[in-house]
Design brief:
By secondary structure, the chain is an alpha/beta fold. It has 17 helices and 22 strands. A hairpin with a 5-residue loop joins β18 and β19. The protein binds 5'-deoxyadenosine and iron/sulfur cluster. 5'-deoxyadenosine binds next to β15.
């Protein structure tokens, strides 16, 4: 009988991609996926450490497995990802029935760890970063050979895929645990990235999203000393037949250079969408966060973006309630959202993370209630801006990569060929329109007639309705 695998993934797109790889690896060995944790004989959690909330969720999920493991000791439980790297022994202390923990840099060991657990080995630990012992080569090797194992069924849709171009981060922002869990920044070999993009294209993938903590800092130097930067990589990927759209997240403001923006402008497949987190609107706070730029420098970058790519949509992340944030400082965040008119912002309440500079040096002194209020206030302002920016699309046509029926359509259980379909514009806005399921995986023109802060609503452009004024 084949093994049944239950896998739950929390956190960022990088984790979704990691889970995709692990599932591919296990399927090759005869594992089948199940969405029923009780039916599984192998249970994996791919975890996130960026905020305490994500960790609490995993510990509480592990808590619910305690009794199950007692009754069925043959069930294997593994904890993967950032929490495994960060907490290590703490996971076994809190949940001693976990069979193994495995860090983000050791995921290729998962099948062996499961096999050893089945043979009775307890509390196995496979963790480690290149940074500690200087063994960067080891990390590089594992990731680069590991990444090409893909499982198309785990992708966001059959037409979209994530492609890792970089691992780790060297920026060490004071609040952030990522450099401790994912290790030093390393660009993957561009040839391997291009080969992987070709495979994805052959599998019918139209859109790739390049992943890294600071993708625009991407750099790879080969054995002969030839350096490939992000702009060079985009040019290489632009040549891959079948790929129609190239997106990339996340960007670091200081590395958003003119040459890169000009490359984006000159390559039509590269989406005019830039996620460049500002994190805060106050220079004092940015300094405490050690982000390495001022608001003035961020503003200069925005002018460069607007000058070079007038149609680009820019989105941001913000942290509210970081150590020592005053009301006035918080208001500078609100001002910056109004000034920079982001397409959308992800807003997070500061969550102190052990092992970070902030946890060691600064006091997490903003009460939770104040964090919550500031979060709501900033979100309300951002939603106002998102709505105002979206309204500008009314009366314009956009090219939509159709992803499939909208969630609402599924709930409505509509009969007949007409269904509410959902897709995205080149600038990453969500579009809902009446269509049919056969349109999934096509790029179609849709004319926008209504908007909310999060969605554009439209109708397909037909010969009768055209010609239209196009937006990106
Ligand atoms: N608390 C709250 N938010 C955080 N982020 C990173 N670390 C923390 C933290 N300790 C946010 C940042 C980052 C996003 C992925 O998560 O805004 O850009
Ligand atoms: Fe964390 Fe800063 Fe690196 Fe982003 S750039 S992953 S916020 S340390």
């Amino acid at each position: 009988m084949s093994h049944r695998l239950y896998i739950e993934t929390v956190g960022c797109q990088m984790n979704m991609l990691d889970s995709e790889m692990v599932v591919a690896d296990l399927r090759k060995r005869g594992y089948e996926l199940t969405s029923d944790v009780k039916a599984a004989d192998t249970i994996l959690y791919n975890t996130c450490s960026v905020r305490a909330h994500a960790e609490d969720k995993v510990y509480s999920a592990l808590g619910t497995l305690k009794l199950m493991k007692k009754r069925n000791p043959e069930k294997i439980i593994g904890v993967m990802g950032c929490m495994a790297q960060k907490d290590q022994q703490i996971i076994f202390n809190r949940a001693p029935y976990v069979d193994f923990i495995v860090g983000p840099g050791q995921l290729q060991q998962v099948p062996d760890l499961i096999d050893c657990a089945r043979q009775g080995e307890e509390q196995q630990m496979a963790v480690g970063l290149g940074r500690r012992d200087g063994s960067n080569d080891e990390i590089k090797r594992t990731h680069e050979t590991f990444d090409p194992l893909r499982d198309p069924t785990m992708r966001p849709t059959p037409y979209q895929a994530y492609l890792r171009i970089q691992i780790g981060c060297d920026k060490f922002c004071t609040y952030c645990v990522v450099p401790n869990t994912r290790g030093p920044e390393q660009g993957r070999d561009p040839q391997q990235i291009v080969e992987e993009a070709k495979v994805l294209a052959e599998q019918g993938c139209l859109e790739i999203t390049l992943l890294g903590q600071t993708v625009n800092s991407y750099s790879h130097t080969d054995a002969d000393g030839n350096r490939t930067r992000m702009s060079d990589l985009l040019k290489l990927l632009h040549e891959v037949d079948g790929i129609k759209r190239i997106k990339f997240v996340t960007n670091y403001p200081r590395d958003m250079k003119k040459e890169l923006l000009e490359t984006i402008r000159d390559l039509p497949k590269v989406s005019p969408y830039l996620h460049v987190p500002l994190q805060h609107g106050s220079n004092e706070m940015l300094k405490r966060m050690r982000r390495g730029y001022t608001v003035e420098q961020y503003r200069e970058m925005m002018y460069l973006i607007w000058d070079t790519l007038p149609n680009a949509s820019v989105s941001s992340d913000f942290i509210v309630g970081f150590c020592g944030e005053t009301d006035d400082e918080f208001q500078t965040c609100v001002d910056s959202v109004r000034e920079f008119r982001f397409k959308n912002s992800f807003i997070f309440k500061y969550s102190e993370r052990e092992g970070t500079k902030a946890a060691g040096m600064l006091i997490d002194d903003v009460p939770y209630k104040v964090k919550q209020e500031r979060n709501n206030e900033l979100l309300a302002v951002q939603n106002e801006i998102s709505e105002a920016e979206n309204i500008k699309f009314i009366g314009h046509a956009v090219d939509v990569l159709v992803e499939g029926p909208s969630k609402k359509a599924d709930k409505l259980e509509q009969d007949g060929p007409l269904k509410q379909m959902v897709g995205r514009t080149h600038c990453d806005r969500i579009v809902v329109f009446d269509g049919n399921e056969r349109q999934a995986g096509q790029i179609l023109p849709v004319s926008i007639y209504e908007t909310t802060p999060f969605t554009l609503f439209g109708a397909m452009v037909t010969q009768e309705t055209g010609p239209e004024v196009y937006a990106l």
